[in-house]
Amino acid sequence: MRKLLLQLDSSRLPSVFDQVVAYDAGADAIMSYGGVTEGDVRDLVHGCIFTRGTKDLKNTAVWIGGNNMSAGEQLLAMAQDSLFGDFTVSMMLDSNGSNTTAVAAVVKIEQAITDLKGKKVVVLAGTGPVGQRAAGLLARDGAHVVITSRKPEQGEKARQFISARFNVQVESTTLTDPSKLDEVLDGAEVLLNSGPAGVQMVPNSAWTRQKSLKIAVDLNAVPPLGIEGVEVNDAGETRDGVIAFGAFGVGNFKTKLHKQCVARLFTRKDLVLDAETIADVAREMAATQNA
Ligand SMILES: NC(=O)c1ccc[n+]([C@@H]2O[C@H](COP(=O)([O-])OP(=O)(O)OC[C@H]3O[C@@H](n4cnc5c(N)ncnc54)[C@H](OP(=O)(O)O)[C@@H]3O)[C@@H](O)[C@H]2O)c1
């Protein structure tokens, strides 16, 4: 039976990137819808669950993407709400790659520092979708997570969202210019840059003088890179005594993880892949050296 993926994308044009990866992961056909809103979801999902016998529903799955993470979360909630009884299909949320990117970074950090309990982790520009997901997962590992934002109200909003979504406590601090980095990074063992593409967030001198720092991860692949001195292809290189990961160093694992998750959607009909469950898949892959 053909493996069918229903792509619900909150953006006007459904992501071609997500389609290519889904084909590479084993989907036989993708039914793509763009500009999907909450009100559209029930009928589209019912089109999946009423057409094949309930035993065959593992061959149909739902993918939720788009540029906007909170819109994606609403679509996922609605899609889950549209299922009942035996009429279920597996689904995955990865708006703009935020879940798989955040998880890939978090698992690289977990591999480098096995016990994160009580360790200070700074997530720079942790108000975006990737940073929020990463901050939540790292706090679930027991880390003392500090997210930064340029704007106090934005930081506080993200802090509240992360705390509620992941049932954790995180701290938020305002970072308007690099001169405050010494204070923000003081005592930090992990630095994760989730700032936007093409913006340098940390000059070399600011992180190399932090003697507590053990790992630095930069998710920005576009020059200038986010952490000066961490190269885009770094995948565990030691730089100034710090284990470094650049955007491609994390991104290669992210792509494998993305494919593995899509493949798993077609192994059962009740899988819901969001940050925590995607992290479970990634940790399993890391344990089998497939990272
Ligand atoms: N490898 C992959 O597959 C992959 C996938 C997705 C994302 N990424 C990368 O991961 C990173 C995070 O992605 P994202 O979508 O979460 O990021 P984002 O939403 O574009 O930006 C994150 C935060 O950066 C801050 N920011 C925006 N402009 C800034 C500026 N000029 N200077 C300093 N801070 C600024 C904003 O926070 P405040 O307004 O609160 O300060 C924003 O919430 C990006 O570098 C992205 O390219 C990689």
Describe the structure concisely.
The chain is 41% helix and 19% strand. The chain has ten helices and twelve strands.
Q: Your description of this structure?
A:
The chain has 10 helices and 12 strands. It has a 7-stranded mixed sheet with strand order 7-6-5-8-9-11-10. Helix 4 runs parallel beside helix 5 and helix 5 (129-140) packs across helix 6 (152-166). It is elongated and about 60 Å long. With 291 residues, the chain is an alpha/beta fold. It has helices at residues 16-24, 38-49, 69-81, 98-112, 129-140, 152-166, 181-185, 204-208, 247-265, 275-287; strands at 4-9, 29-33, 60-65, 90-93, 120-124, 144-149, 171-174, 190-193, 215-218, 235-239, 242-245, 272-273. The chain binds NADP nicotinamide-adenine-dinucleotide phosphate. NADP nicotinamide-adenine-dinucleotide phosphate binds next to helix 4, helix 5 and helix 9.
What's the rounded overall pLDDT mean? 97
Rounded to the nearest angstrom, the distance between the terminal CA atoms is: 30 Å
**What would you report as the Rg, rounded to the nearest angstrom?**
19 Å
Largest sheet: 7 strands, mixed
Order of helices and strands: EHEHEHEHEHEHEHEHEEEHEH
Shape verdict: elongated
Distinct small molecules: NADP nicotinamide-adenine-dinucleotide phosphate
Strand order of the largest sheet: 7-6-5-8-9-11-10
Annotated CATH architecture of the largest domain: 3-Layer(aba) Sandwich
* CATH class membership of the largest domain: Alpha Beta
Number of strands: 12
CATH fold-level label of the largest domain:
Rossmann fold
- Please give the count of helices: 10
